[in-house]
Design a protein that fits this description.
disordered N terminus; 6-stranded parallel β-sheet; single chain; 2 domains
Amino acid sequence: MFSYKRLTLMFIIFSSTISYGHKVKPLNILFIVGHFPSRSQTFILNIITTLIDKGHNVSIFSFHKDDLIFVHPNVEKYKLLNRVIYEKFPSKLPECDIVFCQFGYLGRRIFEMDNLTEWLSTKKVAVCFRGSDITAHLQKDIKMYNRMFKRADLFLPVCDYFTQKLIALGCKASKIAVYHSSIDCSQFFFEVKQKPDNGIIRLVSTCRLVKKKGLDYAIKAIADVVKKYPQIHYTIVGDGPEYKYLKSLVQQLNLQDKVTLCGWKSQDEIVSILSRSHIFLLPSRTAPDGNEEGIANALKEAMSMGLITIGSRHAGTPELIDHGVSGFLVAEKSIFDLTYVIKYIIEHPSIWEPMGRAARKKIEDEFETKQSIEELEKLFYKLLA
């Protein structure tokens, strides 16, 4: 006959085994992605490679095959193309414990595939929500995730802001855990930024060129700032549907000597550009189609390298930037606010070092890949328990 004390002890031992289960049994995880290898989704690649480093078994299913231009070196280093299945699920589905969908619309898609119903019934399914999947995609059908909310086991929004959206849509709060998209700080070296005495003050943005990034407002703010501080230069790194519009805006404002759109760059090139820069701009806004940010990884990378960052009071960004401490926040679509803050930073070089250090600490404490993966492991082992 079991005593209460013995039963409690058995529960503690069982819980300990689950919590540290990766030391006994690796997780078998199938990533569901839309594109692979995607040059704009390094955050997913970081999760994959860190899980592999920790001894877990990772396979990938991708609905589309991207080109191999500007492929991250880790794709080759980890031989990830040998782990990926493209376009159609094969007749023999890969062995896994957890199906890990990287966007909400991908989770919805697999639950709509009749040939997967029986297979999915034996798996645990986790679904991330990162941005457009919980904002723009819902403009056409606000009930699009109802089936998935009932059938999937775990939902991982990248910020508290998206948690509230999920609950409002009818997702059970007990199935939700915030899981921040993270970066590997070892790839982004910290450097104290100092205002050059007589040199150029360099501002920079790195992102996909889409409306929600708000770069047209950044360019218009630069047009105002340059009237007082002609020694500035603004570099925009990235490509996307807004490229031509932003290029024409630069020409209209006669900023060809002050603003450079340099297209897409490799990870090493981006790090080099950030290391030569001082101020990072990402004044995100809600796009006309409802698209919103989660928490932009580009901001995290810049903060980890000690740049003074300017974001906006938009979606999850205030969860990343502590205004006046680790960076600055401006109102959405406010050229006035953006102009004012850029000038303030230029005129107060004494804040550069403490703000840069606070930014690096924020990323190390809350958005670093190693700690993030440990949290994910705990969530997954709990799910399997």
